[in-house]
Specification:
Layout (H helix, E strand, L loop, with lengths): L1 H24 L3 H25 L4 H26 L1 E2 L2 E2 L6 H24 L6 H13 L6
Antiparallel strand pairs: 1-2
Helix pairs in contact: 1-3, 2-4, 3-4, 4-5
């Protein structure tokens, strides 16, 4: 009987968490899959880089947890800004925000992945590619020549 209660309790908790994520973070699970893949690749490459540099430490894991929390907050912010309503009228002013925030997260992960690859396998990634992503990260646009 005790295990059944624990199972029901855990299922209830997971249901509440799932509903929270759907309601306040985002409903775009396809994007979440892509972001999760990039975050996982970045984590693996980051650990590999620090093993090569012999600088691996527990502080790095703290940074990974911090990044996960910050990304979650950014996703919540974007979702709320897109979906809030006033007197029953849905906001349209910030409909662009989730796309912008999703793009920012993808660019940040891509930059980190490419920088890690640059340490693991120097001169493999063209400098112009990393430069373009950093330019977008800094200015929100690409220069056209």
């Amino acid at each position: 009987m005790g295990r059944e209660r624990i199972t029901v309790f855990l299922a209830g908790c997971l249901s509440i968490i799932s509903e929270f994520v759907n309601e306040y973070m985002f409903c775009d699970w396809q994007f979440f899959t892509y972001l999760t893949i990039l975050m996982f690749l970045d984590l693996i490459l980051g650990v590999w880089k620090h093993i090569i540099l012999e600088t691996i430490s527990s502080a790095g894991w703290g940074k990974a947890i911090k990044k996960f929390v910050i990304y979650g907050i950014v996703l919540i912010l974007a979702h709320v800004m897109e979906n809030y309503s006033i007197n029953g009228t849905k906001n349209i002013l910030f409909a662009w925000m989730p796309i912008m925030m999703y793009s920012i997260l993808m660019v940040k992960e891509s930059i980190s992945i490419l920088e890690n690859i640059g340490v693991i396998y120097p001169n493999f990634i063209p400098k112009w590619l990393l430069s373009k992503l950093k330019e977008y990260d800094k200015n929100g646009k690409f220069k056209t020549n």
